[in-house]
């Protein structure tokens, strides 16, 4: 409720700083009786962890998770599940030159003016490292949703800077460093990223997140709509500047007779709605798009000010993702899993088990 | 908490159906001691109400608000403020032909499968009519924010279908039926809408919402970020399919050296961030864009099914907005006001009064 | 969340002042599909309303409820149910002499220092009149619980001042003005109250509240235990100064071998627990006791201060309950119904339907 | 929200089981800029920890706390503070004989029927060991309240079984194993406890909790009253069966002219209210009494059933507190500190800083 909890029923409370002793979360509200072991979570953390290719930050973190509570003899008990990840490779000295200046486009500035104090080591609380506990919590949600309703949640990168990535197959997502659903374009992405890295600059990206087999009826209008809660978590993901569902911004130029998805006795004939009508899931796939901005920690010199509001020139060295959009892919999946799980529990609380 | 409350500290709980006896809301958490009378609220309701031009629904509702509580001798007391709007012009017979069928693109379908019951009269709970209480609550937030910090919240239509509306001046917004900031384009908009209305179809739109003079420091990361909460309310607004902040989807193709807003001792030099960094306001204007889909209630024949899942052809008669984007303008302002107010109160709860 | 909402899932948001235009509430989270009409609610309001005997306040209020939303063709739809009760008999002049002084034992004082403004008419927001919307909401909970699980919630007065009222039968509760389960003692209560009223003083009381047929498994430890949430609502009821469950304060002098309720294959052999162990219902009856203080609005002269902190002598005329404990009986039932209903919905959200 | 979080603004989320790897909590909402180190918390944990005298459980736990986040250079940053306590002395074999039977008066029974699974090792989640994280969180609240408003929160044992403990001085509380404010009675308490321990039985107790220097104005009626929230946390403390404020159950027999605390320009003349009127603090000391039941884990043989509902005789060996009331004293202080702190932050969110 003080800002670091997500979900009303399946509730994730996050803690930690990039270079503090540890990061982690408490997952409260997981139904009892589900098989869960450390590996279920580790497998998702490994997809997000740094250092997996030359295209992401070279910080070396194994991101090994410890389950501290909520499990008895391999099963969830209904009690809160606390997850702990120790920080290992925290080189604070890398940040000394920026500890009193503000990086353009970085949360340095706003944290300082909000709290009057900030932890400059690795971005402190504002670091994308804090998405790791979200991924850990999302792994639990993903597993439960899969068992409850065969719900499958996946994401991929659909654009890197100006390079559009046409969808080919989900099968390719885990076979390249970019979560690209298209193997033919991978070498182009690699070349682009290698050049970018040498230039010391960074780039934005677009991600598509999708949930299949979602039952009809999830969402609590008029304010806690499913799409509203999806927008909340997605815009809350580091570096996201835009969220759309279904036809998204293309809806602006559509006629009603184009946009409204016709229905036959065999189901919907199109999916402009992105699987949500009136804030409630329709049973179609839920399709979300995210715009990810380029990271603000770059070697290119930028004009800025320091904490005394004096003009300075800022360059960021250290180990940063030249495209935060890459590692955002598994995080976006986790976010969607958490929201959908929260809504499954909320729905069955008010209305009982889902019928369709 | 059951879905019809918005805001944690400045909390709006909404009730009502399109053709029920009344709609309204309870605003809980308004600080005591502010002058407030009915007219402060009525003036905003009048901007949203139906029947103000030939381009919006011709339903005749005065949307007259009654303040039931929370005011003593013209001032807020800190107690909840209940607001009541009676429904007057409720022609239920208009809806008889669709009461057992689902309009493509409409919440009919999802409400039915979620609750097992739905109020078909005018869309029941899913009607855009339920934005009126939100506007009433937003009027209170707007007034308080204006007094607290001179915060000014405004919105305009920036695109109608394929017609882009270049920004000229805020002064024009209230002088035309489209909340267009550009008078030269109004006749083109009128012609387009007149043709559209005759065709029985509907169209999407794009809206820009902006808050000026917002202090630095609002937002509660890492989950209840200001931008996340803005995305939540905006995506929760009827017919919205996309929300972006600052550079939004343009961030995808930006380099870090382009996107990150440089700072000088006199302030920021650009506003790609849209006034939010790391989920916290920066003191710059907060700039939000919305994609609004075309309304689903159209006279054009569409294929669909009824509650027995039998194929039917659906046409919607009755009185509908051919472009719901028009009346969404004042609603979007209200939503932004409610979120910002909630965050001012949350911030001063945890950190005390805002300094900058 | 701002203080005027009760329940997380079955959520009641209350508004109004004693002498404002109206009082009421929004009930959000009621499951869809339950038959509900105005009379279901009115019957409970009538049990609490003023003026039903000479032993309670003589204010004349019919407390007629209007259902504004959430019902379609006689059934709940899952949408919020707004309930409105107009204030009729509001004689503000009765309060003029106390509008700038503080009644000893009254919320006048604390409201003034909290908000810097208070509505002195009839106690404003702090009036016991605001329990009427709670009773209306409780009527909905009672009906649903009765249908869901045959849960029955009742209360009675067990002590009036020094007069203990031995329990005889639930059948008598509605047959006298005191909610006494014992008809033999009623004339003694009447005489006592007649004398008290003449003296201009007031008296405390003790109430027992009981829920039968509650399934095992309700409550969300470790903080949102069922007993904790019961204590919350009961201590939040006007004039309550003590709440106990099961053996209550007698537990202090019990040995473990006395207190712990033995179990046989046929069930528990005693009920010192009051139906709650570890914060979770056991399937036994839930038994709660309340200590109600005497009302602070009395004709007896008391020393106090005014808003300028000057010494004054205060006497309260107007129409007050000489024993607020009497009308607290139906309110306490409603409070218990709301808490139990909230926990049924929370339980089935996390764990699915209750088995035992 | 799923039951393991306490407080809306100063929010404590608790995790762990008695014999799992660790217990702990996340404290979200602590204001930034306060000096805080491990020792501030350890000192309070040491008051509650087991094994400090022969009158409490002989389990050996150092209860050493590790601060995982939320501190930078010795000061709070406004980020969540995660606290970790490893379990060391977990002898699971002690519990093997009760792992399939229910101890009369114990949460074994209700946990089993709620979740369909329970961790029998040391009571699992229902163990009083889980009050340690609450104490750790309370230590932070205590420190902040002390600095913010010189608020002082203390508690003592006022009755052990039938032995009343007349209050003499706060100075003695820390000088004996019983938190007795009266040294003369300590040897009597020791003799009683030694006899009790030998008998294998347990006993109840009464505790008084008090907060001094609380400003006027805390509490959010009409539901989130200060006294209601105090009752919630206190009844939520393991083994509590009754909570009263001020005159408490004595209010039942008081006349209004006795109960209502008269006021002079120098302040209140008595404190029957216990420092709360209308749910809002008055500026007087807040006085709360708790009834603590005897622990259910005793060596005395009791009749019960097992998980198959077969009759069994249960005896509990292992290491238990013969009077859980003793170690409940520091826990009750922590609970009160958390509630008051939450209300300070809530108040200043809505109304700004407290004036009186």
From TrEMBL, chains A, B, C, D:
<keyword id="KW-0274">FAD</keyword>
<comment type="pathway">
    <text>Metabolic intermediate biosynthesis; chorismate biosynthesis; chorismate from D-erythrose 4-phosphate and phosphoenolpyruvate: step 7/7.</text>
</comment>
<keyword id="KW-0456">Lyase</keyword>
<keyword id="KW-0521">NADP</keyword>
<dbReference type="InterPro" id="IPR035904">
    <property type="entry name" value="Chorismate_synth_AroC_sf"/>
</dbReference>
<dbReference type="GO" id="GO:0005829">
    <property type="term" value="C:cytosol"/>
</dbReference>
<feature type="binding site">
    <location>
        <position position="54"/>
    </location>
    <ligand>
        <name>NADP(+)</name>
    </ligand>
</feature>
<comment type="function">
    <text>This reaction introduces a second double bond into the aromatic ring system.</text>
</comment>
<feature type="binding site">
    <location>
        <begin position="238"/>
        <end position="239"/>
    </location>
    <ligand>
        <name>FMN</name>
    </ligand>
</feature>
<dbReference type="GO" id="GO:0008652">
    <property type="term" value="P:amino acid biosynthetic process"/>
</dbReference>
<protein>
    <recommendedName>
        <fullName>Chorismate synthase</fullName>
        <ecNumber>4.2.3.5</ecNumber>
    </recommendedName>
</protein>
<feature type="binding site">
    <location>
        <position position="48"/>
    </location>
    <ligand>
        <name>NADP(+)</name>
    </ligand>
</feature>
<dbReference type="Pfam" id="PF01264">
    <property type="entry name" value="Chorismate_synt"/>
</dbReference>
<keyword id="KW-0288">FMN</keyword>
<dbReference type="InterPro" id="IPR000453">
    <property type="entry name" value="Chorismate_synth"/>
</dbReference>
<dbReference type="GO" id="GO:0010181">
    <property type="term" value="F:FMN binding"/>
</dbReference>
<dbReference type="GO" id="GO:0009073">
    <property type="term" value="P:aromatic amino acid family biosynthetic process"/>
</dbReference>
<keyword id="KW-0285">Flavoprotein</keyword>
<feature type="binding site">
    <location>
        <position position="278"/>
    </location>
    <ligand>
        <name>FMN</name>
    </ligand>
</feature>
<feature type="binding site">
    <location>
        <begin position="125"/>
        <end position="127"/>
    </location>
    <ligand>
        <name>FMN</name>
    </ligand>
</feature>
<comment type="subunit">
    <text>Homotetramer.</text>
</comment>
<dbReference type="InterPro" id="IPR020541">
    <property type="entry name" value="Chorismate_synthase_CS"/>
</dbReference>
<feature type="binding site">
    <location>
        <begin position="293"/>
        <end position="297"/>
    </location>
    <ligand>
        <name>FMN</name>
    </ligand>
</feature>
<comment type="similarity">
    <text>Belongs to the chorismate synthase family.</text>
</comment>
<keyword id="KW-0057">Aromatic amino acid biosynthesis</keyword>
<dbReference type="GO" id="GO:0004107">
    <property type="term" value="F:chorismate synthase activity"/>
</dbReference>
<feature type="binding site">
    <location>
        <position position="319"/>
    </location>
    <ligand>
        <name>FMN</name>
    </ligand>
</feature>
<dbReference type="GO" id="GO:0009423">
    <property type="term" value="P:chorismate biosynthetic process"/>
</dbReference>
<keyword id="KW-0028">Amino-acid biosynthesis</keyword>
